[in-house]
Amino acid sequence: MAAQTMAAKPDPAAAPGLAAYPVDVGAGDLYRDAAADVAQTWQRAAQSLLALREEAGVAVQELVGRQILDLGMSFRLTGEDDERDWPLSPMPLIVGAQEWAEVERGLVQRARLLEAVVDDIYGEGRLVADGHLPAALIAGSRYFARSMVGVAPRSGPHIHVYAVDLARGPRGQWRVLGDRLRLANGIGYALENRLALSRVTGGLLTDMRARRLAQFFSDLRGGIARECQRENPRIALLTPGRFNQSYPEQAHLARYLGFPLVEGRDLTVSDDRVYVRTIAGPKRVDAVWRWIDTNALDPLRFDARSEIGVPDLFEALDRGGLTLANWPGAEVLEAPAFAAFMPRLFSVLLGEEPILPNVATWWCGQPREAQDVAARLDQLMITPAFGTGVEGLPHGRAVAGRSLDKAQRHALLAAMARRPVDYCGQEIVTLSTTPALIGEAFVPRAFTVRAFVARNAAGEWAVMPGGFARLSSSGEMVNTMMGEGDISADVCVVDTKADVAAVNATPSVLGAPPPVRRGGGILASQAADNLFWFGRYVERAEATVRIIRAVLGNSIEVDAAAGHSPEVIARLVDLMVTWGALSREEADLPMPQACAAALSDTVMNGSVGALFAAIRATALTLRDRFTTDFWRIASRPLPPVDGHRAGALLRTARELIERLSALSGLLAENFTLGPSRHFLDMGRRLERAVALCQTLRALSARIDTPEALGVLLDLSDSQITYRARYLAAPSTAPVLDLLLLDPTNPRSLAFQAQALVSHIEALPALREDNLPEAPLLEARAILAPLSSLPVEAWNLARLAEAEQRLLTLSDTISTRYFLQFEKAGVGASSSLLA
């Protein structure tokens, strides 16, 4: 039913926030076209947002922005390396339940059709044989997976979940702009938008009777689990990795759904089953929700150049050892050229007229259509037929023909004449508008909606009661990606009668309450590796910054570090060269410039700047495990470095130590005592122990001087402990005992060794004979002399031996826990990180 048949002019006096909303009902606006009861919901939402602004004393956009930061919502524009905060409008896009019911029916109908088409393309092939689809339409798509012809899921469908972009026209009719079967991008942002808006607006969504989203995600999970062959199946979300544009969304989805977030190198295939490599050995994976292209899934079957896939994954699929959502090759239907044939396919396969029609499309692979598109170039959008960049289109993307200048027009027509199959013409869509709160006023913004459809535990289609809207800054949307200046909005489907309580009776958690259990689930080997190295990078950065602070403090403060001698300072600088924080040439610069280089020269991989970059990069891979506060500190960029003022540099060093100390505190307090905590802290303890050994050896020639002893206490943050214990100037034996052998000092070598032993003892073992494994034996060998020998027995040779054993322990940990599973069983392999 078209929305305008229910329209009633809202009463401006009843809605101060929307009284001046400047849209003519004839132009097609979601609020102006709304039925009277839905319009009242719009009015309540506007009034509530304005009241919230008055109550909080700040713009509502700022309140939303805080929630964006707390949730860690971010995205990247195409071509950019840095992430941006997700742009969310405080005003939701409101659709009445009656209007949405028609959309929902249309989406389910379309999902049925898409499943039937995919089944035919990779099955009997009757659509091509009977002339309903040109063979070139299928073979020309980069997403057509020839290897999947004749290979069907053993049980269940080809499509489990998909997204569809919708546009609403001036007369209230909804139409399909495009289907997304490869990746359901935006499904996580729809969830995050709802969470952020709920936190900002309190009970507004409940007052609006907005339908909840939790049941849809429960249905999605149940639909994938339905095809698995055992109870409580393990479902993993397969990501391309942190460099993918939607990685933040994938991490949030994995955390919300309780799916392990894995990359291809986390998985291996053995006996036609898929396993995730974990610290406790291989664990079977029953289903995978893939977020990578078909071509990248299995380098042995599809594209041999893929570095993110899983070798032999195809064999597991072919023999029924894995459920995959969606089935490889399903994305062939994403090609815009398919839209030209959808009306016919509805009739042929379903015997029905489409409830949600496509945007009118003409594929130039047919002579008559090619001539028509060329003749009507100024009236159409010209788009690549198969979704890839083609000659003659600026940036390879869709473009309005009327926007081209004479030379561009001539070049495009020539390219279309050479290879007409690569182009489509589509009607230019006039989009409806919706109220958006921009600054202090509600203004109209053109919008599209991304909706989501998934199979539930009964195998039936379920539609998310909402989605996310993209509000254009320009009024045009030539592609479906977020662009510069665009903002998103939560799509709320609202019920308008008091007797619909049952609709919203769904709990906010996923499905039925799970059984009580403890522990954090499986820990993939790669995640353990990244946690281990995250701890090492944090500790390594802190050790370097402490040396910089000691050097700078000596140069500008009379009382700092007991006035270190030039020889001590020189040895500290040499140590930074050894650690890769400085080049030899930079070490010869005046001290402020040398310290500035050690802070900011990212060419040197041991510099503080490089280490902070490593911290941020590693944190990205662990996004689904970190709290918001932890993530905010870990991802914060390096503060400005002023290489001309020693005082400013010293303040920067102190700020960095405070930040690193905050990270260490969160590591200690915010991780439960499980495998994740063990690997994080093992990395810190091992790095701290190695740094202490190397620092002691670097200052060995001056170890009996007050200057050197004072530096050691400073760098180990043990000055206060020493003074409280001895009430005397630093002396060699007491200082060395405190830093080497005292098991109660959190900075001592003995403390680090004991912590390493305790962590390794707590990790799962692979041996069935209960004998200690190599990492535990090595850690105990490090601890033994620290527990049994007096301080007088420690010399350079013994210190060097301890350092070498620590480095050996690092290799042993990597060999045992990181990517240790091979097809033949458990074997040695190298660490993921060099």
From TrEMBL:
Q: Where is the Circularly permuted ATP-grasp type domain?
A: 92-471
> Which Gene3D superfamilies has this protein been placed in?
3.30.1490.270, 3.40.50.11290
Which is an annotated Pfam family here?
Alpha-E
Positions of the DUF403 domain: 523-818
The protein's matches in PANTHER family, at most eight in alphabetical order, are given as: BLR2978 PROTEIN, BLR5612 PROTEIN
What name appears for this protein in its UniProt entry?
Answer: Circularly permuted ATP-grasp superfamily protein/putative alpha-E superfamily protein
